[in-house]
Amino acid sequence: RDMKPGSSNLAAELDGAVDAAIALLREKGMPAVSFRLIAERAGIHPATLQSRYGTKRALLDRVFAVLVEEEIRYCRNVEVLASHARTHAEGAKLFGLVVCGGGGEREPTRDLALVEMLIAAVRDPLIRPHADRWITHMQRSWAAAFVFAPDSADLGWFLTELQVGLMIASV
């Protein structure tokens, strides 16, 4: 692939801008996601973002894609932990650790960004596939925690709904 001079620098700037947008979304919610604030946080000119993404909607599409990939990695870690659960009590303990805060690496501000994504997905069909992908992976992770149960898929959906409800209540 031919690269123009400085194009790798531009890619790094745009990656930094996506990271800045995720950080703002997690800290302050959707109102803080603007080209100006993101560019300021990323240390680039707002015109760079405007020329690459054109609209806030297109930028959010990229932001939510990256956010969901992070969450899917988190879900896969839950699945690894879940592979050790062999009873309902062990699965419930895992749920408590992951959802209620004892899971270690999960910072509380992550939930605000995910709730904002869910709200945006209700209004915007461009965002909906990201929310669907995240929720599907979350359900699979919870079903894996209770794989020994005959109703593990249904239980996975119940726990996903419960987790989303708790997230919404916490923001």
List keywords for this structure.
single chain, 171 residues, mainly alpha, disordered N terminus
- Could you give the distance between the termini? 44 Å
Q: Average pLDDT value?
A: 83
The parts where pLDDT drops under 50 for at least 5 residues are 1-6
Biggest pleated-sheet summary? none
- Give me the strand/helix succession: HHHHHHHH
Query: Which radius of gyration do the C-alpha atoms yield?
Result: 18 Å
With helices defined by DSSP (H or I, 4 residues minimum), what is the helix count? Answer: 8
Beta fraction of the residues?
A: under 5%
Overall 3D geometry? Answer: elongated
Overall number of strands: 0
Q: What structural category characterises the helix and strand content?
A: mainly alpha
Oligomer: single chain
Q: What share of residues is helical?
A: over 70%
Detail the topology: elements first, then pairings.
Elements: H1 7-28, H2 35-42, H3 46-53, H4 56-82, H5 88-99, H6 109-123, H7 128-145, H8 152-170
Q: In words, what does this structure look like?
A:
- By secondary structure, the chain is mainly α.
- Helices cover 75% and strands 0% of the residues.
- The protein has helices at residues 7-28, 35-42, 46-53, 56-82, 88-99, 109-123, 128-145, 152-170.
- Helix 1 (7-28) crosses helix 2 and helix 6 packs across helix 8.
- It is elongated and about 55 Å long.
- The termini are far apart.
- Mean pLDDT is 83; it is low at 1-6.
